[in-house]
Amino acid sequence: MVIGCTTLIAATLVTGIMIAQRTRREIRSEELEILQGVRKVCKLSTVEISLADYAKKTVPKTIDLPFTKEPTAYLFYSGIVSAGFDVCDGAATIDVNHAKREVRMVLPPARILSVDVLRFETINEESGFLNEIAPADRNRWYGEARAALERGALAGGALARATTHARELFAGFVGTHGYTLTLTVADGER
Fold it and tell me: Which of 3, 56, 127, 139 has its CA 20 to 30 A from that of 22?
């Protein structure tokens, strides 16, 4: 009878230990899945904005004679601006609290990740043989077009939209595992 009770108690303890270890492995596996899912991509682009604009550009005369005029060009440009987060930045952290089923994330401030100029065309160009538009002028205009696309995306609220979309994406991702998300952006937005 004593041996039977001892065996039953030992079997119960061993079963309890095995269940506890299995639960810890499952929790650790879930935590790793969440962490790996977030860290798979360093540059998390959450918004892409397509923009287009035109501009009139002039170049000062190199030779100023009464019958010459300033070279003029009309430009059209378009592109895609991506905004989001650099998740591999040192400011990004992820903490998982299994007891509360909560994931706390801190992301660096949203920023412009890329500006891709897809189309850059000279629609109309007027210059003379004495006053030409140089390749350096065209290169400068390309850089100005790129900067204008970035300014347009910022003016259109790309960074705020990137933060909102990241919150939706991460909440959906951790929600599938039964967790809630607390997302904080390093510049203080909650």
Answer: 3
Structural tokens at position 135: 């390749």
CA distances from 186 to 14, 35, 94, 156 (A): 46, 19, 13, 21
3-state secondary structure of 182: strand
The average pLDDT across 11-37 equals: 58
Cα separation, 152 vs 54, in Å, equals 12
pLDDT beyond 70 at 55: yes
**pLDDT of amino acid 32:** 60
Please return the burial class of 185, using the count of CB atoms within 10 Å of its CB with bins 0-12, 13-18 and 19+. buried
The pair phi, psi for residue 186, each rounded to 5°, is -55, -25
Report pTM.
0.70
Return the domain boundaries, the chain.
1-40, 42-185
- Pairing mode of beta strands 111-126, 102-107: unpaired
38 has a pLDDT exceeding 60 = no
Residues 84, 46, 30, CA angle at the centre, nearest 5°?
Answer: 100
CB-based contact 72:126 (threshold 8 Å): yes
Residue pair 109/185 in contact by the 8 Å Cβ criterion: yes
- Give the integer Cα–Cα distance in Å for 57 and 72: 6
Rounded Cα distance, 81 and 51, in Å: 8
